[in-house]
Amino acid sequence: MLERNSFLMRKSIWDRFAAVPDPRVDRTKRHKLQDILVIAVCGVICGAEHWTDVEMFGKVNEAWFRTFLDLPHGIPSHDTFGRVFAVLDPDAFEAVVQAFVADLAGSSRGKHIAIDGKTLRGSFDQASGKGPLHMVSAWVHENHVAFGQRAVDAKSNEIVAIPELLKLLDVEEATVTIDAIGCQKEIAEQIIDQGGDYVLALKANQQSLYTDVQMYMDDGIANGFTGEQDFWETVEKGHGRLETRQVWTTSDVGWLQGRHDWPALGSLTAVERKRQVNGHCERKRHYFISSHPGHCAQRLGTLIRNHWSVEVQLHWSLDVCFHEDSCRVRMANAAENFSRLRRIGLMLLKQEKTGKSGIAGKRLRAGWDRDYLLKVLGI
């Protein structure tokens, strides 16, 4: 069985990692890069949260790894893992990860792509004055997979990183949703140029636009809209909570285009959420612009709500199940590359459907059961 699995392992993991450029000089290559990458991915799937954990996992399972890896000098030390991932080119590694994601989950074309950022809080290095790493991810709602990641430069912000991330994605016929920091004309224009549509949240970072949309939508809700418009409402009850969501959309954007000239602007949306818990009522209203027409409030309301699956299914899982915020890997490129190991692990665990437990339970089972780990790896 292991001989057959070793062949499939090489086809699914080994060959993909062979495309990652090795940054080491020949005289320092005691261990094959593919071996290092495969051991690291397996270790992270099974609960490893630092290079010392990865080394320990490798040594405990060395006999098993030798059934499909060469390991000419045994299992690398934790220092070797740390040094290799510190100098590994993040962009080259990302390209291989994206190809791996595409093989497993297909294309992002025509789907809902939610773009959102997350800070790796434990990655700061106080001694060198280095702040925590911030990563921007592209989460495809239909597949429950992060199709791409981009680190935010320490001297920059998400506004610069988002266009670079978009270049890596197939957004043809897709809808890209971004929170308020991504509400920039250049980003909207890039999405349109790449063949997609956008839904962008509005906040005070676009003060004039926000004020105009807020006043117009509030007046339309109170007194009636002119032109094409639509309304949708949902009510949810449970656990002592009553939540009502109301969505108003309008295609009457000509007046706004004359003032702000947004690329392919098609509609304005207001979403009001009223939440009642134990007699306490909270009401909030949010505003959005989109290239979609405003004749289907249900479609726009669903896109807006589903955007936050990136928080629950990606960021929450990385924090709670992989303890990402407490990870102190921080040397050079290591934090960024380790985040990709977690992303690969989370994706593979989500794709494995036979296990009935959640992500944390699947990690435990993979750590205890090598046959199940092979199943998680898709073998």
Write a brief structural summary.
By secondary structure, this protein is α+β, with helices and mostly antiparallel strands. Among the domains are: 2-93 and 332-376, no CATH class; 202-295, no CATH class.
Computed over alpha carbons, the radius of gyration is 23 Å
Q: What is the beta-strand fraction?
A: 15-25%
Shape: elongated
Number of helices: 15
Q: Tell me roughly what share of residues is in helical segments.
A: 40-55%
Q: How many strands, what sense, and barrel or not for the largest sheet? A: 9 strands, mixed
Low-confidence regions: 1-11
> Strand order, biggest sheet?
3-2-1-4-5-9-8-7-6
Structural class designation? alpha+beta
What integer is the average pLDDT?
Answer: 87
For the termini, the CA-CA separation is: 11 Å
The counted number of beta strands is: 9
Order of helices and strands: HHHHHHEEEHEHEHEEHEEHHHHH
Q: Which helices and strands appear, and what pairs or packs with what?
A:
Layout: H1 2-17, H2 33-45, H3 51-60, H4 62-65, H5 78-87, H6 90-105, E1 112-120, E2 133-140, E3 145-151, H7 158-167, E4 175-178, H8 185-193, E5 197-202, H9 207-223, E6 229-238, E7 241-250, H10 254-260, E8 267-277, E9 280-290, H11 297-306, H12 309-320, H13 334-351, H14 359-368, H15 370-376
Parallel strand pairs: 1-4, 4-5
Antiparallel strand pairs: 1-2, 2-3, 5-9, 6-7, 7-8, 8-9
Helix pairs in contact: 1-2, 2-3, 2-13, 3-5, 5-13, 6-13, 7-8, 14-15
